[in-house]
């Protein structure tokens, strides 16, 4: 019997599950090796659980989500979270730094119709997760590695070093050293292939913090490259704002800004 | 689901498949007549307009891209246009051409995804394209490779297919070299032929009878098939500048949806490929007009089921246009214009694959956003989809619930609804009492 694959969506832009459909050369091959048992974006056919591998996209933002993610765990042998929303609460976690009732009244004429939680959290805040794949969006090569690894019962081989290593491997001259462009590469998790510096732009941290970082020491270099405290708050507070290392960095910069 | 041919019943789809994002449909039938049709958007609310307040004007393209993984370029383009309008900056002609090229990539990718992976299985009686591939692997392979060529453009010019990194207000971080685009042009020549084969293939499908009434709204430009520049036009004769959008179109908040419903002063209207085709047929290149004639599509078309043909024609167009742009490309002197902040309000409107996408930002003299308004295509189409379904179901009450539900889902997919975008949408339920 083929292993059963399920893809679940919570609060998200659909980009990470689209990454699976973006595997144009591999999609039919993958579909030949697994039973796609639940993947609403791709199929009407729904096969009941249990599932061998559940892939979860999106963050938990409603009371119903909390129940649903627990149900996904109960039905699944392995659960893998994909993307910044499912690993760090995503851009929706910007609400964690503000008053969500005020947000509701900004966007909706009838806030009383809206049911949402005060905080956006990753699935790991509610259930045990077997593996987290970072990125906003995730990289398709890494997604294929994770699926392949779980189908073969081994650990995915995903590097945990920073974007800097990818720039060196790609042969990109450091934009921060050579051009003075502020870049989050030294503290950001690898996986994208160091795209931004290759396009003459500093990394903006969409893969979240690397596993070992020293952001307080690095912040001085960003300031020297011309970033104000206001800039620092914002650069750490985007798609991985609730990832602990980035959260601490934005809170520290905010405190420094307040002192001024 | 209950079933009675003449009396009262409820049709209900709890989770609509093969759409982007999550929603449901609920239809109530009483004494043999359709009483209510609701598209329920249960995608959780996402507060982008609120997140944008207090951010810098330079951050808007990256933040708004995250509204939708399927059409991030559309969000980036409408956002840039609106900010540049506020700052009073005009962009370089080659930068404008590169933006159009990037947008062609997204049209090809998004339309190929919808035609092959989301919509065609309905017409051929399959649950998914994976099932379709078991019988017609060569066809699905063609669709996937066509989709990939769209992504090739996004990768080369944007850095990656989802949430491209190379777009900034004022232009790009880096302009491609002529040599970077040459391999893409090679694949586009194959893709243009594959798109023509796609149009011929989808035109052989059976199309249920349905007539879309109401106004069709799209950007219009006299000299080109409008994508990222033009005036807002409609089939009833509307012709306004982008900045007049708020005076003519509004959003309203209804209890069953976290999407704000689009409302025109004149009532429900439709945006998207059918609107563009009806309003801008004259601006299509000869090659696309020829394919349209070959597959029997006239210069106007109001059957939403035939939107799949129009999407295929737009893929032919996007491939042809991308080739034209690459052929004429000379790298700009600078990849972006200087964009010093200036206090004011700016408007932006471009044609996302699903239709008109409007953005408005108010920024202060330091470039900080004080107000943001984003009106996505699916929110504008939601009343029109409900209105269209009302009549569609009424004419098909003789069908059993299973078949009627299947056809309703297909009818909803005609609009390629993007529910993730609209939240601020589908599961079908028909209540026959």
Describe the fold and architecture.
The complex is a heterodimer of chains A (260) and B (433). With 260 residues, chain A is of the alpha/beta class. Chain A has helices at 15-21, 27-33, 63-75, 83-88, 100-107, 140-151, 163-170, 175-179, 195-198, 215-224, 229-236, 244-259, and strands spanning 4-9, 35-39, 51-57, 76-82, 131-133. In chain A, strands 2-1-3-4-5 form a five-stranded parallel β-sheet. In chain A, helix 11 (229-236) packs antiparallel against helix 12 (244-259). Chain A is globular. Chain A starts with a strand and ends with a helix. Chain B has two domains: 2-45 and 397-432, no CATH class; 58-380, Cytochrome-c3 Hydrogenase, chain B (Orthogonal Bundle), CATH 1.10.645.10. In chain B, strands 1, 2, 3 and 15 form a four-stranded mixed β-sheet that branches. Mean pLDDT of chain B is 90; it is low at 1-5 and 423-430. At the A-B interface, helix 1, helix 2, helix 5 and helix 9 of A face helix 1, helix 4, helix 5 and helix 6 of B.
CATH class of the largest domain in chain B: Mainly Alpha
- The CATH architecture of the largest domain in chain A is 3-Layer(aba) Sandwich
Task: Give the overall form of chain B.
Answer: globular
CATH topology of the largest domain in chain B: Cytochrome-c3 Hydrogenase, chain B
Which consecutive residue ranges of chain A, at least 5 long each, have pLDDT under 50? none
Overall pLDDT of chain B: 90
Number of domains of chain A: 2
Number of strands of chain B: 15
Biggest sheet overview of chain B: 4 strands, mixed
So what's the overall shape of chain A?
A: globular
Question: Looking across the biggest beta sheet of chain A, what order are the strands in?
Answer: 2-1-3-4-5
Count of helix runs of chain B: 14
């Amino acid at each position: 019997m083929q292993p059963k694959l399920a893809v679940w969506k919570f609060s998200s832009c659909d980009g990470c599950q689209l990454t699976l459909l973006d595997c144009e050369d591999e999609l039919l091959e993958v579909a030949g090796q697994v039973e796609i048992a639940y993947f609403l974006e791709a199929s009407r056919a729904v096969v009941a659980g249990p599932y061998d591998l559940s892939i979860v996209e999106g963050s938990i933002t409603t009371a119903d989500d909390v129940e649903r993610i627990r149900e996904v765990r109960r039905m699944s042998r392995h659960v893998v979270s994909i993307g910044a929303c499912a690993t760090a609460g995503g851009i929706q976690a910007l609400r964690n730094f503000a008053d969500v009732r005020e947000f509701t009244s900004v966007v909706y004429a009838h806030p009383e119709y809206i049911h949402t939680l005060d905080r956006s959290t990753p699935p790991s805040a509610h259930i045990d997760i077997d593996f987290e794949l970072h990125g906003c969006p995730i990289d398709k090569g890494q997604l294929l590695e994770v699926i392949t690894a779980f189908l073969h019962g081994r650990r995915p081989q995903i590097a945990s070093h920073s974007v800097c290593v990818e720039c060196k491997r790609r042969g990109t001259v450091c934009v921060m050293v050579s051009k003075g462009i502020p870049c989050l590469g030294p503290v950001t998790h690898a996986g994208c292939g160091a795209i931004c510096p290759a396009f003459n732009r500093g990394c903006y941290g969409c893969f979240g913090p690397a596993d070992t970082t020293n952001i307080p020491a690095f912040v001085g270099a960003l300031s020297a490259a011309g970033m104000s405290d206001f800039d620092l708050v914002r650069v750490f507070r985007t798609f991985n704002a609730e990832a602990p290392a980035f959260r601490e960095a934005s809170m520290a910069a905010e405190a420094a800004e307040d002192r001024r | 689901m209950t079933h009675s041919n003449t009396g009262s019943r409820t049709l209900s789809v709890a989770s609509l498949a093969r759409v982007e994002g999550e929603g449901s449909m609920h239809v109530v039938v009483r004494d043999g007549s359709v009483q209510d049709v609701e598209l329920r958007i249960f995608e959780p609310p996402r507060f982008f307009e609120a997140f944008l307040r207090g951010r810098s004007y330079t951050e808007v393209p990256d933040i708004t891209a995250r509204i939708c993984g399927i059409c991030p370029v559309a969000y980036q383009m409408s956002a840039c246009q609106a900010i540049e309008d506020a700052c009073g900056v005009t962009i370089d002609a080659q930068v404008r051409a590169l933006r159009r090229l990037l947008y062609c990539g997204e049209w090809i990718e998004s339309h190929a995804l919808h035609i092959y992976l989301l919509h065609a299985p309905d017409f051929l009686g399959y649950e998914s394209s994976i099932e379709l591939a078991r019988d017609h692997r060569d066809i699905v392979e063609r669709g996937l490779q066509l989709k990939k060529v769209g992504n090739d453009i996004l990768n080369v010019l944007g850095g990656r297919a989802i949430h491209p990194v190379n777009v900034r207000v004022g232009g790009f971080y880096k302009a491609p070299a002529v040599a970077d685009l040459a391999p893409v042009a090679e694949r586009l020549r194959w893709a243009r032929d594959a798109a023509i084969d796609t149009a011929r293939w989808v035109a052989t499908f059976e199309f249920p009878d349905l007539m879309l009434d109401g106004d069709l709204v799209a950007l219009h430009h006299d000299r080109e098939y409008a994508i990222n520049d033009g005036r807002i036009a409609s089939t009833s004769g509307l012709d306004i500048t982008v900045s007049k959008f708020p005076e003519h179109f509004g959003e309203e908040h209804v209890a069953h949806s976290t999407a704000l419903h689009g409302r025109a002063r004149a009532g429900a209207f439709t945006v998207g490929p059918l609107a563009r085709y009806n309003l801008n047929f004259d601006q299509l290149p000869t090659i696309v007009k020829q394919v349209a004639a070959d597959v029997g599509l006239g210069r106007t078309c109001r059957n939403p089921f035939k939107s799949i043909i129009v999407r295929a024609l737009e893929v032919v167009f996007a491939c042809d246009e991308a080739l034209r742009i690459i052929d004429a490309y000379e790298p700009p002197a600078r990849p972006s214009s200087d964009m010093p902040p200036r206090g004011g309000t700016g408007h932006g409107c471009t044609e996302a694959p699903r239709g008109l996408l409007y953005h408005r930002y108010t920024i202060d003299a330091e470039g900080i956003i004080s107000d943001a308004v984003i009106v996505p295509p699916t929110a504008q189409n939601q009343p029109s989809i409900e209105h269209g379904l009302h009549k569609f179901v009424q004419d098909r009450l003789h069908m059993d619930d299973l078949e009627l539900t299947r056809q309703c889902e297909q009818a909803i997919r005609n609009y390629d609804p993007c529910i993730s975008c609209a939240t601020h949408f589908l599961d079908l339920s028909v209540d026959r009492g």
